[in-house]
Design brief:
Oligomer: homodimer
CATH architecture of the largest domain in chain A: 2-Layer Sandwich
Radius of gyration of chain A: 20 Å
Strand content of chain A: 25-35%
CATH class of the largest domain in chain A: Alpha Beta
CATH topology of the largest domain in chain A: D-amino Acid Aminotransferase, Chain A, domain 1
Number of helices of chain A: 12
Largest sheet of chain A: 9 strands, antiparallel
Largest interface: A-B, 29 and 29 residues
Distance between the termini of chain A: 37 Å
Number of domains of chain A: 3
């Protein structure tokens, strides 16, 4: 069975690797001839909005899916006329626009931080007066890894922020006091069965995910709440595949920040740290196979390698360290790989974490 | 770094998969254009004894290794003139000839079953008189999966067995009363560091491995003995990479049956069941990287899929079942894949094992 994957980045690469032993061959569509996923399956090189490339990509597929949420909706719909597409294009629509996303969460009774749509400088000033400072102004579309965002610390910042981001639809998000960021990864099969991984604790810097720890410490009491959010979202979208929801852990209820209708960086630890990886479970779901166990195997800490790669030999000398290099050219701010530390118990992770942190502060010159 | 692997079967495929995340790209040499490893790296199609193919294969490699032990020695030596070859060709020489192998074990004080070299029918009769019946007559070279063997139950069977196997150098092995078959998988790095996986219990039928269970139940008391054998063999050969030694568990010492200078079928469980798989550790060793932890993660049961493949959906419905299909055309007696069941404790495996056994008795018609 051939599974089409729109996008050929590292998520596609890990999907392709997960499918191969199950007899699921992935075919990727990506504009870059050196896309990492090309090492894990057939690569169709073409633009996502090129009908010819889309049709070559779609020919003979049993099912199609995607590894990033900014797939043009027209492309997803063109594909859906030819082959079954999971998750449904409706999930893309909800995830691509921050206002649609927040409206979607609210329609399901899933709380979010206070927000206002902003289309003009006047809207921004009014929203800021209502929500107070600090607040974050974001583009409604195409933001990722902290791009397309501005923090407003005082009402006087409005004009500057508008000058930087204005001209496209925006959203202002009120400041929320939260303890930490969590994420829930859930999966739904074609038969409607669902499963969730344990909550993950995430640490971002400069808008980019740096660390994920799973299961999130002291989060068992929040698991049911997060799974409830995920189940409502999955059912409402008639979703098939893995869905990630980023959450703020507050003194009140968990607040949904955003969702990704795909496998997610905060789920990379599942390769070694769970019985079935998010990649395998996504493919099992879209291919109509039974879901695999989402139970953790010990505790895991995932670290992104951003902009530079440490000496592989030094990383591999850390017991329980698992190295994943994506084979991408180094560039500042670019995700080049990740390392997952796994241990049977949380105590085992701490020393390893310090050792690895030291390594990551001294990336290899060749990185 | 490009690692050359002579042979492109399922072992090569799993080596290629293990190397990719470490930045180690495997290139395979195999006469079959549809060799499974072609999905996990570049495939050079050519005969193992074709100098032109060998040279194309060798060009630009950082190091070469093999995934089967019957690589022609001349080919290994030709490669060794061009690139570092691990394990050393001397290990191939010792493993390719059952008499050389037994002599090697005995030279290290590693006990083996009684044996006699047999070159003529008269030798066979004399050896049978000395060792008694039953006994097993085997070709000294190129036997695998039970091929090239005859069991002699009475002195009168000698002529028939000779007629079947004679004409090539043979060895007669005396019958040994043993409780079970075990194997030890050990790995040695370029720096001389060694590590061993827990002992594995193996069940063969018709000369083909059917099941492996790891860690072998009630075998902890035998671990040091087996590791001692492995360490002696690794040091004597100045070995680099994974070495497997098959053992008979008797009332006396463990007896060495044979060795494989490569990753081994009885180590497939390490993909899910150990912190670092045998495939990754073999590549770490030959590439000069630090060895990874060989600690088990719970208990594992590996079942070979031989001749036919069960319905993947039924296998994946068994919790903790991990499916590995090699993508080979079905043929009686052919290894087409394997399933590893993993659980945190031995009790967890038993019910799963029964469920899977039931499935394997009813292979899918499409298998």
């Amino acid at each position: 069975m051939t599974v089409g994957v729109v996008g050929g980045g590292q998520l596609g690469w890990m999907l392709g690797r997960a499918g191969d032993p199950l007899g699921l061959r992935c075919r990727f569509l990506d504009p870059a001839p050196d896309a990492p996923a090309g090492r894990a399956g057939e690569l169709v090189v073409g633009a996502y909005d090129d009908p010819g490339a889309l049709d070559r990509f779609a020919a003979g597929l049993a099912v199609a899916t995607y590894e990033f949420e900014n797939v043009p909706l027209a492309a997803a719909r063109r594909l859906a006329e030819r082959v079954p597409v999971h998750p449904p294009p409706g999930a893309l629509a909800a995830a691509q626009d921050r206002v649609a996303e927040k409206t979607f969460f609210e329609s399901l009774g899933i709380p979010v931080a206070p927000w206002r749509a902003v289309d003009r400088l006047d809207d921004l000033r009014a929203a800021l007066a209502e929500l107070g400072c600090p607040a974050v102004l974001k583009t409604r579309r195409l933001g990722y890894d902290g791009k397309g965002q501005a923090i407003l610390r005082a009402p006087g910042d409005a004009a500057d922020a508008w000058a930087r981001l204005g001209g496209v639809p925006l959203v202002l998000e009120g400041f929320v006091r939260f303890r930490r960021e969590l994420s829930v990864l859930a999966v739904r099969g074609r038969d409607g069965a669902t499963a969730s991984y344990p909550l993950v604790e995430n640490v971002h810097a400069d808008g980019i995910l740096r660390w994920s720890r799973a299961p999130a410490p002291d989060a068992a009491a929040r698991q049911a709440e997060a799974e409830g959010y995920a189940r409502r979202a999955l059912a409402a979208l008639d979703y098939v595949g893995v869905l990630a929801i980023e959450l703020f852990d507050t003194d009140g209820p968990l607040l949904a920040n955003e969702m990704a209708p795909r496998v997610h960086n905060s789920g990379h630890w599942t390769i070694e740290g769970a019985e079935t990886s998010q990649f395998e479970n996504h493919l099992r779901a879209v291919a109509g196979l039974p879901l695999g166990s989402t139970a953790p195997r010990g505790v895991s800490l995932m670290l992104n390698l951003i902009g530079a790669v440490p000496d592989p030999a030094a990383v591999l000398a850390v017991p329980g360290a698992h190295l994943h290099l994506y084979g991408k050219a180094p560039r500042p701010g670019r995700k080049l790989g990740h390392v997952t530390l796994r241990a049977d118990a949380p105590e085992g992770l701490d020393a390893l974490e310090r050792e690895l942190e030291r390594l990551l502060r001294s990336p290899s010159p060749g990185g």
